[in-house]
Structure prediction request, 450 residues.
Amino acid sequence: MPLSCFVAVFILYFTALSGTTVYNDFEEEYHTPQLDYKDPHWCHSPGLTNGEVTCHSPRGGAYRSTLGTRCEMSCDRGYRLLGRSSIQCLANRRWSGTAFCRQMRCHVLNLIPHGRYTCTHGLVVDSRCDFTCDPGYRIEGEHSRTCQHGGSWSGVPPLCADTDPPKIKCPPSRLKVAEPGKLTAVVTWDPPAATDTADKSLDVILVGQEPGTDFKEGANIIRYKVYDQARNRAACKFIVRVEVRRCPVLPPPMHGYLSCSSDGNNYGATCAYHCDGGYELSGKSSRVCQFNRNWDGAPAECVPMEIKSDVKTVSALLDQFHEKRRLLIMSAPNISDTDYQLQNLMIQKADCGLDLRHVTVIELLGSPPRETGRIKENMLSPEVIEGLRQIFRISRTYFSMVLLDELGLDRERFIAPLGSDELFSYIDSFVMDEEERERLELHRDFCDEH
Prediction:
């Protein structure tokens, strides 16, 4: 706003009888003027724009410009006096000085980050500037500043502080059925987006398991949190629940047991039926837990194993044992062979342990035409005896034993009688699998009880 100034110049004129001399902006006569102290208008009546003139005259308060009158100059509020603060009406009909009032202003206020201000009367005295902040920010400090009489602003600049927390919304909670044969499920979701009134970009932090990974059975709490640049915090959470569908627990068959995959009775788990020594499976060998929480098929049974010894070929005999039993073929020149008699005695005492290990003993004795072959009391045909000797190269001239696994493969040969502990140790270590060994540990005392 332009500053308007009014300069009051007060000039006193008087008649000179002779030439004049100028000094200090006033003209002095060479000769003493003719003074008239009674003239009420010796000097021009003083005035001061935007200010006040207070005069004291020797002739009394009613006179403002008589000779010798002294006037005090003062400016209105918001104006500064420039010039003389006190003037006197001199004999030369002039005032002893001049003055004017200049409007005072404050300096332009700096803008505050994330804020603005508006002023009532610009930058002049008594103008009030009110501060406001952008959305998401709040004033900290004084809300306004006033231009003071000395030309300075009151108070100190305020700050716009970010106090509005960001906003974040998590995805809805979800339920997922565990995958077949597993106790976990892969669950995915889109990460939430966060917004803030102050910051355009925010870092969203996941507290918990990553999406697209395997989540375990039950409730899994997933949390997200976000901070803006002012460290205002927001958070949300949701639940990922994994359900494992389960079938009723299958009872093991009498004279047998079950081996189940996964957790035993969860959706997709497979339970295989197994029979103890001397028994074989009747029915479906395994069952699977379905999504509807029911087992497929019907339960299997373990029935006493029936061996047909009157078959005509060795393959017909071996097929009965395939994947069910192991064979220990014992051969001797005759029944009176001392190695055979010793081994036969030890085999009879170890009969229970052989059953636990699913081992069936086949005896081949003598030479044709008196050669015999038997499984316990069941006699074998000559064709089967000859087939066994040829396939597994079993001699008739000396004592020997051949151990076959469940697939009919030759695993070991013995040419001298073998104690039960040594035989069982070999079978347990090299022929049985881990599951069978664990099962054997559970029933190791079975033979002692019988």
Remarks:
- The helical segments are 314-319, 338-349, 351-356, 382-392, 420-431, 434-442, 446-449.
- The chain is about 15% helix and 35% strand.
- The chain has five domains: 20-103, 115-162, 172-243, 256-304, 314-432.
- Residues 220 and 240 are 5 Å apart (CA to CA).
